[in-house]
Amino acid sequence: MVRRTKEDAMETRAKLLDAAEALFSENGVTHTSMMQVAEKAGVTRGAIYHHFENKMDLIESLMGRVKLPIDEMREQIAEGSEFDPMVEIKGRSKEFISRVQDDPQVRSLASILLHKCEYIDEVNPIKLRHVSGRNECICDIEKLFESAIEKGDLATTVDARIAVIGLFSLVDGLIYNWLLAPDYFPLVEYGNKAIDSYINGLIR
Description:
Elements lengths: L1 H26 L6 H8 L3 H7 L3 H10 L4 H11 L5 H18 L1 H12 L8 H28 L8 H21 L6 H17 L1
């Protein structure tokens, strides 16, 4: 009985996250209420507040159920794993845009954060969470660029900070514009070529 109750609770939580993902993608975060999410999931008001404190909690849970290539790379860095920094940077960047194109949950989350989330008032904490995560990623990848410079894979004239900001701007820009009109250009095909051009330019 206890096991069944736990399974029911997990199923309810998953339904709520699916409903939130769909409504946030369609209507935006600001214009979606907790009650609307509960109704779409077919549960009561009490049920949604049992699982999630507020919309910030919902967004964080949506982010938590998607493991991105950048997260996997950061785990490798934390573990001190040995790998070629430039190969890793290029590979993870390409894998990220591939996941956005091919994985519905990753694509929905990217769309919500980039296009459906007004960073004002009640959802401002989401902006702070997003910016904090981005800054942590930038610092980690900056260390990889610094490592590549130390190994001689990049010239000492390369500024690691500028290099990582440029890469983030490139990848984010590709994803942002592709999500506006997915039929306008093939994300993976164009994205891979753009990433190659950028990284190869740094190496030369």
